[in-house]
Amino acid sequence: MSIAGALLAAVERIGTTLALPPISEVYVPDATPVAHRDAEFGVVALADGSAGLYYAWLGPTQAGMARRYADIDFTGMNPLLLARRLARDDDAERSLALATVGAVTTHLHRRAGHVPPTAADSMAGIVCTTGGHLGMIGHFPPLVRHARAAGMRVTVVERKPQMLREEEGLSITLDPHALAPCSDIIVTGATLINDSLDAMLVWCRHARRVVLLGPTAGVVPQVLFAHGIAAVGGLEILDAPAAIARLRAGERLGDTARRYLMEADDHPSLDALLARC
Fold it and tell me: Is the pLDDT of residue 215 over 90?
């Protein structure tokens, strides 16, 4: 079963076991990448305050989302109905679906009394060593800067030809074969939106540690662990209305969110979490 299919099956199980709160708000930004910011997010919030994020700078496949959904009132919708759009061949639909899956996952954690550990740093437990070689699937500008400052070589596999470049200590390429020398690999959660994660994980089988990071990453982590991912790092929205207000104002999430890291070795199973609810 594909990762998307397994995520949908897991969310259906959660939704049939628990009475999920309805959707309270969907924030779809008119996203415009700018040089002084690394990302922009959309949000799906549930009535209990649980919320999920999606990365809004994927590219042309997300173009026009704000206009497309402007006349749709998602308020009161069962989140399962929006989550099921993950099966559609449409990046805009999958963006909203994944944010919804993230919100349902957060709801489950809160109902079960499980608090994913706060991430110690932005590198998700990957040790930066001088002379090391870090692979990335998707460009994480802050992490690239961090790794290079620590003396690591960084190889990034991208899908956008305009991003390609070669310089001392950094290679951005379209060729996944370039990941072969990398012992640790960070994968962007955007691969869940463009449905490329299954294919890209094939190129990570040699790696000592594969970590999935990003606002879209916190989606039923047990599914991701079952596909060989060692850890999942994301953002938990602590105050959904305040977070959406900040994003509308073009501000950072700041203290309305926290960074967490879930490790495969010590994360509860889905059965265990559901049993606690």
Answer: no
